[in-house]
Amino acid sequence: MATVDAATVIQASYVSAAAAILVIRAVPSLRDRFLAYGSRASDVPSTVDFKVGNVDAPTTGDSHQSGVERSSAKVDKKDAASATSVVGKLLDSAASIQVPHSWFASFYVVSTLSSAFWAYEIVFKAAAFNVVADLSSDNDRSMTLRQIVVVSAMMFAQGARRLYESIEFAKPSSSKMFVGHWIMGLWFYVTIGVAVWIEGIPMLRQADVEMKHFQFVPPTPRTFIASVIFILASGGQVDCHGYLSSLKRYGVPQHPAFQSLVCPHYFAECLIYLSMAIQAAPKGALVNRTILCALVFVGVNLGVTADGTKKWYAKRFGPQSVEGKWRMIPYLF
C-alpha cells in the first residue's frame, strides 16, 4: 500500500488552491493586483497605496507620552510605512509579470494532449500509469472500466471543444493576465487528466481495458443523467462563447442566457464537471470525490471572477445593468 495516496494529494491540491483564491479575494492589496485581468483590470489602479496614514499624526494617548516615547513612536511608524512600501513594491513587481490573455488556448492544448496521453498509458499499462498506481492506496470501491472510458472521453471532448473555440472565436487582443493565472491553469489541466480516472485504479489493477469497453451499450441511469447534463451544458457554453465573440464592442450581453445570470458560461462549466463527477462515482458513492474537489476549485475560481464581472458591469454600465441577476448559479450565487 502506498504511503502517499495520489488521489488524496490531488484532492488536497484542488481544495488548497480554492482556499488560496478566497484568501487573495479577501485581501484588497492582493485582490486588486492579482485577480483582475482583461477588460476589468482597466479600472484597477496599477499600484495600491500601502502607506499607513500620516506618520506625523498623533495617535490616541500621545499627549501622555514623553518626548523620547513620541520620537520612538514616529520612528516605528516610519519603519512600518517603509516596510509596507517595500511590500507594495514587491507585490507590484510580481503582478507585473504577465502573459498574453490569448495564452488561455494553451490550457486546452495541454488538456487534449493529457487525455490522449493517459488513454494510451491506461490501455497499455505503461510506465507513467504504473507510477501513479504505485502511489495509490488500495480501495474496495472503484470505478468500473466502462466508467473510466466514458469519463475519459468526456474530458477529452471538453478539452478538444474548448481548444476549437479558442481558435475559432479568438480575436486580436492586447489583454494580459498575471502569470500565476496561467501557471495555475496549466497545473489544473495537467492534474485533471489524472483526476478523472484515478479512483478506478483498483479495477485497473485487476483487469485491462479492451475493445468491448468502447462499444455502445444502453446507458445506466447514472450515465444517462450525466450525459444529458454534459451535452446540454456543453451546448449552452458553446452558444454563450459564440455570442460573446460576435460582439462588436464590449457591453452588457443581451443573449437570453445572460438575462438572469451574469456569467452563464461559467455555470455551464461547473455543470460539465458535475456531470463528470456523477459519471465517475465509484460503487456506492453519489459522486467521484476527486472530480468533486476539482469542481470546488473550478466553482471558486469562476465564482470570484463572476463576482468581479458583476461589479465591473455595475460600475461601467450602471447598477441597473445587473439588477436582479445572479452572478453564476441561479438562486444561489
UniProtKB/TrEMBL annotation:
Its EC number is 1.3.1.94. This is Polyprenal reductase. It is found in: Endomembrane system; Endoplasmic reticulum membrane. The chain crosses the membrane at residues 6-27, 103-123, 181-204, 224-244, 256-280, 286-306. The keyword Oxidoreductase applies. GO terms for biological process: dolichol-linked oligosaccharide biosynthetic process; polyprenol catabolic process. Residues 220-333 form the 3-oxo-5-alpha-steroid 4-dehydrogenase C-terminal domain. Pathway: Protein modification; protein glycosylation. It comes from Elsinoe batatas. Residues 55-74 are annotated as: Disordered. Keywords: Endoplasmic reticulum, Membrane, NADP, Oxidoreductase, Transmembrane, Transmembrane helix. Residues 60-69 have a biased composition (Polar residues). Signal peptide: none annotated. It is a multi-pass membrane protein. Belongs to the steroid 5-alpha reductase family. Polyprenal reductase subfamily. The keyword DNA damage does not apply. InterPro entries: 3-oxo-5_a-steroid_4-DH_C, Dfg10/SRD5A3. One of its GO terms (molecular function) is polyprenal reductase activity. Plays a key role in early steps of protein N-linked glycosylation by being involved in the conversion of polyprenol into dolichol. Acts as a polyprenal reductase that mediates the reduction of polyprenal into dolichal in a NADP-dependent mechanism. Dolichols are required for the synthesis of dolichol-linked monosaccharides and the oligosaccharide precursor used for N-glycosylation. It holds the Pfam family Steroid_dh. GO terms for cellular component: endoplasmic reticulum membrane.
